[in-house]
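Notes on consecutive records. When two proteins share a document, each keeps its own sequence and its own token line. Never mix them. Below: protein one.
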Amino acid sequence: MSLYVQFGAKRLVQIVPPESLEELTWESDDKTVRRRGRGWMGRFAHENLSPKEWNMFFDLQLDIGFQQVLANMYQNQIHSTPVEYADTVELGTQRDPAQLSSFTNERLLRFGFLERRVDGRYADRQSTNGKFQLNAREWGLISSGTDSLLAVARSVSIRSSKNAILNTWIFPVNCLLTPVFAAELICIAGVHRVAFIDIQTPGLNPERREEVSAITSPLSTKYTVLPSDNEPPSWATADSTGNFSYARNAGPEWSSIVANCYQDYLSVYLSGVLSHDRSQSRSIVSTAESDAVLSAYQIHHMHSSPGKKFLDNLFTSDWTDDFMNGFLFTLPKE
């Protein structure tokens, strides 16, 4: 049995599992993949890969006979359009949720999103007590096959001297055909009070929902190690396949893993979901039904999330209402 990984047009790297399953070895360069916790962590270098790609990490999640290998690697076969997985950032180097906003921008731009101007009322805002700074950004993705808008990404970063919050959404123009990316990270004095990351499926057709479940299941399994002293709220998981990752009151020692989790879900969403939709020859456009479903989803999150009360306290309720209704939770449009 062999596993193969392909990086675009670059040569394949073959992995041959040893008999003992205590370690894996890259046949091409004799790099060892050592066991880490419940899974396997590997690092490789290859003369045909760029310096950035040398820093790619991946997990081989052990299931009988290596059945699941993070969506882009399959047992005894080659997958020609692999899911990129945490591919250009050295994992563990970005610990602060607000610092992940730079990763988000770089990853979106490299994928093909274009940054869009955010209304000055929302782009930068200082809290009424002068201790917090909010920065809001937006990007749009155009379908390569039809030149029409496919999705809009929005990210809100809030920072103070000791605290950091990152809220990232990617809303598709038609949620009946394409899922939603959702992430909220709240770090207070180095402790992740909340970290919730998911690819959600409001109104998504059943066949596509199964596909989303298949590519997110290995990620959810991998990050079950994240600590939590309770279950996530039901309002947050209502449109989930169940393959979300959640941490609550995770200490500073978990910061790198929370950052890795965010990076992995975003990379899988882009390369495992949007790359397929972007290449379609037919237009994926909004409909009255898809707009109604996505709007209901956005309103549900806007009114259910405790983040609204937090923003009310920092920036006034009038500004928060305007921010959420005029920017963060609006339908994606050209």
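Protein two starts on the next line and is unrelated to protein one.
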Amino acid sequence: MSSSRPFLILAAGAALAAPLAAEPITVSTVPMGGMVVEVPSGLQMLSMDFQKPAVFQGPVGTISGSSVVISTEELNVSAPSYVQVLDGDALGTVVSVSSFSNGVLQLETPIVDLAEGDSIAVRPHITLSDFSTTPELSTNSSITFYGSSGTFETFTFFSGDFLGLPEGVWADSNFEDAGNAVIFPGEGFVLNNSGSPVTALVSGVVSTSPVKISVGPSFTLVGALNPLGSSTIGQVFSNLTEGAIVDIYGAGLTSSDSYFALDAATLGLGQGVVFTDSQFEELFDHVLVPASTPAVVTPGGVQRVVSIPASYIPSN
């Protein structure tokens, strides 16, 4: 497993320490900051615990399929961007933006249950070009994303020294520039570091609103969007169904701790699911999803949507 340490997390001018309890922290302003992630050689699972700041936030107007009217005609979405729904029945839904013109956002797919007056944020995506390390990754290092339907896509890094350029380049399977390949909020990936250990500095704003991510029917890598590593599997994965498995992997992906979802209502423990280990003798809802490291979720052959809770709650 990669290791990480808080680098700088600021809110209202004061540094935040990791909380003793796994509860969201109430803040008056959206915290910005970053953290150093130490990445050894070989295979590691990583996730980005930050988002980029919103370039627009406000209510939506008329909705027609994948077209959404917003209250500005000045919005730069030249970089890959997405809409995040902040309230209403579609709370937490994330959809990429195709284009913007004359106050109308064109989305890649319609947002089910989005209603006029619901609030959204438009944010630039974190992309592969944002993932940089010191020293630079070695040529033939790679990142692999695993889709919820069992598909995967791998991108290969070519260092600046190898190319004779100031900095390296990520390339797809056709050896075309893949710097704009997006990393969705909450999406984990596997990094194969082909060289010596490196450090990565990831930064941005912390999550102050839930984010939904689709999982299954195959396995999916899901991060907690919490740079303090204080979110539990019980918080993040409570809306899975009985039979789902959540694996937390150790260093080098050579070992893991597996937690099995049981129906809470059957046990008289409320709604959703609770988690136990292979002995089925103790509950493990309190197990933490490590900072910068995703859990591997196998939802039991069904498609589910996980709602990653906000790690910070605005006070206004």
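For the record: Helices lie at 160-163, 233-236.
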